[in-house]
Design a protein that fits this description.
Layout: E1 3-6, H1 12-24, E2 28-31, H2 43-46, E3 56-59, E4 62-65, H3 67-77, H4 90-123, H5 130-151, H6 164-167, H7 170-177, H8 184-187, H9 190-199, H10 203-212
Parallel strand pairs: 1-2
Antiparallel strand pairs: 1-3, 3-4
Helix pairs in contact: 1-3, 1-7, 1-10, 4-5, 4-7, 5-9
Length: 213
């Protein structure tokens, strides 16, 4: 049975899940959810996701929300198929989880706040808080300095192999560099930029970008 992914292809969190499915070569069906019209807040959708967010996946009778949990599920269910995205040893898996936590709490929250102020609110006709953007940028610079140090010693965040720790960053970095106009935060850091060029050139991510175009 084909896994169903509920959410717009252009949204960051669904893109995280789609990239994982494509890395693993898993067949899926995208069920579009119109965020602009508030479809994700309607009662029928709230039965799938009680917090009214995307994505949600349905794998037969099994339903799951939260993109990072979905990625872990896919990577574990199809562990023997495609690249190993979880890490091979207990220690490697722990490091992958460590960097997924960093991505969620130290990186993504800052990027989301910046994209909200610079991109989303202006699209809605509202003015963004540039002081907040400046504060987030300063914090993000310090986070990316840690990434630079790590990636100067390791090809990928969790070691020598591409894992969920790297994949999970793809949507937010793309938004940061393109729509938010903060490309300099990446390209001015040699190791971070090399890492970005590497992970964003993967066939699965390119396919996600094709689907979103």
């Amino acid at each position: 049975m084909v896994m169903k992914v509920y959410g717009p292809v252009r949204a960051a969190c669904p893109q995280r899940v789609l990239a994982c499915l494509l890395e693993k070569g898993v067949n899926f069906e995208v069920v579009h959810v119109d965020l602009d019209s508030g479809e994700h807040k309607r009662p029928d959708f709230l039965l799938r996701h009680p917090f009214g967010q995307v994505p949600v996946v349905e794998d037969g009778d099994f339903r799951l929300f939260e993109s990072r949990a979905i990625m872990r599920y896919i990577a574990a269910k199809y562990e023997e198929q495609g690249p190993n995205l979880l890490g091979k040893s207990l220690e490697e898996r722990a490091v992958v989880d460590q960097w997924l936590e960093v991505e969620a709490h130290n990186f993504n929250e800052l990027v989301f706040a910046m994209v909200m102020q610079l991109v989303i609110l202006p699209r809605m006709g509202e003015q963004g808080d540039l002081a907040l953007v400046d504060a987030c940028e300063r914090k993000l610079e310090k986070v990316l300095d840690v990434y630079e140090q790590r990636l100067s010693k390791s090809r990928y965040l969790a070691g020598d192999s591409f894992t969920l720790a790297d994949l999970s960053h793809l949507p937010a970095i793309r938004y940061l560099m393109n729509e938010a106009g903060m490309r300099h935060l990446v390209v001015q850091r040699k190791s971070v930029n090399a890492w970005w060029e590497d992970i964003s050139s993967r066939a699965a991510w390119k396919k996600v970008m094709e689907l979103a175009s």
